[in-house]
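Case study B.
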Amino acid sequence: MANKTSTHAHPKHLYHHFIDSEQQFSAAKMGMWIFLGTEILMFGGLFAAYIIYRAWYPELFTMASHELNTIWGAVNTVVLIGSSLTVAMAIKSAQLNQKRNIAINLGITIALACVFMVIKYFEYTHKFHLGIYPGEFYTFDGIEHPKANIFFSLYYLMTGLHGIHVTIGIGLMSWLLWRSLKGDYDSEYYTPVEITGLYWHLVDIIWIFLFPLFYLID
Amino acid sequence: MATAEASSNMKKVQVRRYKPEENADTNYLNAESGLRSWLLTKDHKRIGILYLIATTFFFFFGGLLALGIRMELWTPAATFIEADTYNQLFTLHGVIMIFLFLVPAVPAILGNFFLPMQIGAKDVAFPKLNLASWYIYMIGAIGTIFVIFAGGIDTGWTFYMPYSSTTGGAVTFMSFGVFILGFSSILTGINFITTIHKMRAPGITWGKLPLFCWSLYATSIIQILATPVLAITLALVGMERLLGIGIFDPALGGDPVLFQHFFWFYSHPAVYIMIVPGFGVVSEIVSTFSKKTIFGYWAIAMSSLAIAFISFLVWGHHMFVSGQASLANMVFSFLTFLVGIPTGIKMFNWLATMHKGSISLKTPMLYILGFFFLFTVGGLTGIALATIAIDIHLHDTYYVVAHFHFVMVGGMVMAYLGGLYYWWPKMSGRMYNETLGKISALLVFLGFNVTFLPQFVMGAQGMPRRYFNYIDQFQGFHQVSTIGAFILGIGFAMVFYNLVKSLFNGEKASANPWNSRALEWQVASPAPPHNFDHIPVLIHGPYDYHKPMADFQLGLAQTNGHEPEMGTHIEADKEVEMKD
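Model:
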């Protein structure tokens, strides 16, 4: 283990199996990019189902989307894009070694993500109130189409899976916030901030597809 | 000291020879002890062993279920179990063998253990994720086994809709279990791709990457692209049962054929997840035991990627009788024929490697010879099944069952066992018993053929798969098949006995018992805790048997004034030029 007693400074964050920080950073980044690829494929299954049912019942999708609240959908879009900006600013702060700004930007991102989830909560409960449940529990009679339940199954599945991702993102960023308050991140080492940022951008991009596909038909 | 005399992208590095230590005091097995050191290990080698123990258990469990199926089919009517139990047996046999054994076996055991060593790394890129993948696997596996006690499942391993949304039993539980298993597979794939890209030692360019690594690379690509689709499909099956979402269930307005498309979009590439790593093992063993440079290195490497690519375009050949458009049938049939090209390329290159080689018929090589025969039969019958007109007749018959077992057991399991014997000295530090090894290899080969050759005949004559009762004319075939299954079972048991016995009284293995040129053999047996105490440098390809062994034991000379540890044999420094 002669190479362990290297004369080079061995930073605390560097794992033993990497040669240097640069290798570790680029490996982590690549791993995250591949993971994002798997996420796209996973959502891809649901998007494929959406495309097929929309091709079969185009009129259903036009009618049913009127039940969705475009205003709140648009607000949520702005909120998520805003949170993507702040997470990018957190990474920039890390690169510039502004430790306090990392925490501030992460805090704003978490707050915006929570706003998104609260709005989603009110949208869901409003629909439940009308009897718009997924699948066989669907009881709403305002849409004259026998397959209206399938539209809302897709709506709940896709926005639900997206919501799970937002929640996971809130968890990850809370952990980052805690560690950044401890001063763990600086311009030398901010890998977790960088790769969580990548994840967060994907969550944002998926919503940018979901919003027009469900709310803005017609 | 990297004397960077840069001429274009060549640089000179100072290297020394690091001879592997014989009978080293510390190795990865005794570096730490106690159950805790195993359950919390981040060492890729130990995680490989954890996978080995788990998958071996599930392999024998799934094998016993298979023997149960074969015993039941001894007579045309009920032999010793109820029809419903029989349905559960073949479902569990399929699920356990595919998701708990075939998918993880070669990548998670042999790949985990040897991928980092072959590229001269100390570990995979994400060791914690690697350990997490084992725990996720175990959670999914226990969930899958638990299904037996939660009412069983009788859908077959394919979970076809609408039956799977209406039948009783623990389908929701099972789909959740397999959903979890998928994540384990995805994490392994992410880890391997990143490791191969980022962790290669100096000199290991893409053109010197061992073919086992190339095959794992291709496999990982399929794993990360296909498994998420299975995950979402099974999530939808679960939702269908819990919420009645109506995507797949025709009673609620859904489309069951859509399920088949989703399912086979994963499950066809998945068979390449199972077999492509086996191809990698074959390349390593053929070259080592023929003492010859692999023939057509790039052809073999690229054909793995070609198989990975084509695997995503052929799923429709499982659905020729589903009512799919006839144009789609024709396109899928044609695309399926294309799979034969890269596979054939591999086969010919392996045979050409053996041509005029100095072939030594040790146990690993015997398995590979068995692989050549069985996989060729399995592959060619696959071409027959891809022909639409023939498939209409053979669809859902024992012909398909025999084809699938020829490629999976005859192909993948033979390659896996060959690989296990081949790498056993490095994993355990012990030599297995060669005579017993050869006898069991022959028994496995014989038993396998006796089991599955009659099934081709039965299938061609119209015996449908998954049936509990059958007409009397098939009884002879079924009985031969059942006898074969027991011979096969005895063969597998002997393999297990031979390997386990070697742990207790096997001869101590030398560092490189096969005189291989591959990097994993240039360290002590069993492997040292951190694989290499130096940074290895490769100046030749991994199969250059015409180059002296000393050239394969080079590492960067220590640059910091510290002498390498005692016991490491160092020859004089020399300079080599290499591509950066």
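Residues 120 and 182 of chain A are 32 Å apart (CA to CA). The remaining cases will be described in the next quarterly update.
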